[in-house]
Amino acid sequence: MKRAILALLVLLAPLSPAIATETFSDPKVLVQSIYDGYRPGALRGDPAEYYSERLKGIAELAQENAKFIRTAGSEPAPAADPAFNPFLPDASALLFDLKVGDPAMLDDRAVITVTYHNFDQPRLLAISLVKEEDSWKVDDVASMGSDVPWLLSWALAADPYAM
Questions:
Q1: Please, what are the domains in the chain?
Q2: pTM of the model
Q3: What residues contact residue 99 under an 8 Å CB cut-off, 6+ apart?
């Protein structure tokens, strides 16, 4: 039995990078794929896997700044959480009424609106996308349907109180 499991792992090992680097030729398919991970029983991945190089850089800088802020003084200053999930910014999830809009596109850029209810809380997001190396990636996320609107890149880069 152990040999069979080991053989299966050896056979599947080359496939794992291909699965991790899924490409999306359509921006709406990317956004639908993101929210497929929030269905009951689905495995949730790291939201950063969908980020553009620009947004990944901002998140990495926020991670480094968070480490610096925590170690700089005796009392830690508030810092934006680089692990914040912009697609579902709630601790618990029970999504219904999920609607992914059609993309508004201009060359290698697109914007898609997403609306849903999480439990009884309505959400409205605008997801900005960019095409990088023949695949669509999330370049920013804006929450417009809450009491405190936010823009992910700005919150990570400039506003330590945002999240």
A1: 24-157 (3.10.450)
A2: 0.77
A3: 114, 115, 116
